[in-house]
Amino acid sequence: MMNRTAPLEMTALEFRAAGYRLVDQIAEWLDAMPNGPVVRDESPADVRRALGADCGLPESGSDAQTLLDEAARLVFDHSLFNGHPRFFGYITSSPAPIGALGDLLASAVNQNVGAWRLAPMATEIEAQTIRWIAELIGFPAGSGGLLVSGGNMANFVCFLAARAAAAEHVRTSGLQTMATRLRVYASTETHTWIQKAADLFGIGTDAIRWIAVDEQQRMDVAALDRQIAADVADGELPFLVVGTAGSVGTGVVDPLAEMARVCRRHHVWFHVDGAYGALAARVPGAPESLLALSEADSVAVDPHKWLYAPLEAGCALVRRPPDLLRAFSYHPAYYHFDHDVTNFFDYGPQNSRGFRALKVWLALRHVGRSGYMKMIADDMRLSRALHSLVQQHPDFEAMTQHLSISTFRYIPRDLRSTASTPETDEYLQRLNQEVLTRVERGGEAFLSNAMVGGRFALRACIVNFRTSMNDVEALPPLLARIGHEADEALRAM
Do domains 111-354 and 368-492 have the same CATH topology? Predict the structure, then answer.
């Protein structure tokens, strides 16, 4: 029988040549990227034209090296670079280079980390990584969890664990058999994952009790306590309270310790969405409330945020690992796997799972606890410095600063005295929207926005080990110049 040579195969020599060339190209790009634009001002049509998006599937193949050269050119020339030192837009970090190399290694070995037998070392590396993440944020020893795609999925996993803990029979008989309605409690600042979870997992978005926030946008714990008591009195079943450890808009942290006490008193599962802020829990200068993460029943954490892992990497942590088994484990006859080891298909929704842990594990070992404490502390310090700069600048109104997020707005000096009037406030909303649009298109920096007290705010978030004080100091004068240009343009209309 003749040996088979598949079109996809590459010889060791071919792979080495292509790989070395690609690594060289990436290294050169990493060196040059901080001095170039964060993004280019391109329309969707421009990007599709560069790609040749209208072309059909090729009938025959092309040389691998040529294709890699083309792919590198396309992504280097037509992407938004969240690793750029002046990317302040979203809670997406600069990716650790060792994590990128880890992804290459993980893809080459191609482990399915669903069952231990299919991925013995990868499974053990993931288990160790989860223990290290729990240790890093102060979550109890003996806790468990798994890596998932990101914050939404980590929160979903914990949501389902809480539902199973309160009403395990729902897995077999369904929600329609329940005589009482399930209730979940979240503040009005909670990320939209909670609506998705309520929708996807059958309780409906009307089951969410939206709890008011105080003037700092933190959950009103007294209101939470009253609402749970009222629902219990009405014969309903509270099963989940969600605390936020670093809101998407402003980075605010809920009063987690007080929320934990309310949950214990009412015997309700306490979950913390710490996708952003949980990893700062043990960092000097972080909000003291983060220390109460240790009292939660579950926590969602995103290594692709403040552990600087390349996308995708989320982590669901639970205080009691059997709670995940109760929510997810099934053993059909065609499964023939060992039961005295960790099989991650028992702990979450996926059967086929990639080796996400390697990039996180490598980076944790590369810099250690002290390295991460320093980088996260630096991000928060730089955010506070930016907030101080906009406070001192005559063209800005500083609004909020929490964790590594600062919010503020541009106000022309001649409008400062009337900024609180409805007419001026409406104009400032439009003006700051225009400022943001111009900044994002200009490529010199990239910000996003938040709504603070009903006002449109410019939002700068720093989860970026490449950002320096020089980048922070350059931002206010850049925004002031763009704000002046936008104001002139709007007034001339």
Answer: no
- Say if CB 389 and CB 473 are below 8 A apart: yes
Q: Could you give the dihedral angle defined by the CA atoms of residues 112, 114, 117 and 119, in that order, rounded to the nearest 10 degrees?
A: 40
For CA atoms 218, 222, 225, 229, the dihedral sign is negative
Q: Tens digit of pLDDT for each residue in 34-50?
A: 999 999 999 999 999 99
89: nearest Cα among 476, 468, 482, 464: 464
- CATH 3.40.640.10: does it fit domain 111-354? yes
What CATH number has the domain spanning 368-492? Answer: 3.90.1150.170
Residue where the block lists tokens 């945020």: 305
Do the strands 455-461 and 448-452 form a parallel or antiparallel pair, or are they unpaired? antiparallel
350 CB contacts (<8 Å, ≥6 apart)? 114, 148, 344
- For the chain, domain boundaries: 12-81, 111-354, 368-492
- Cα distance between residue 311 and residue 464, in whole Å: 14
Rounded to an integer, the average pLDDT of 162-187 is 91
Per the rule left: phi > 0, alpha: psi between -120 and 50, beta: everything else, 329 is: beta
| pLDDT tens by residue, 428-444 | 999 999 999 999 999 99
Query: In whole angstroms, how far apart are CA 156 and each of 161, 192, 298?
Result: 9, 11, 11
DSSP-H helix ranges across 82-192: 97-109, 120-137, 151-166, 170-173
Element (H, E) at 407: strand 405-410
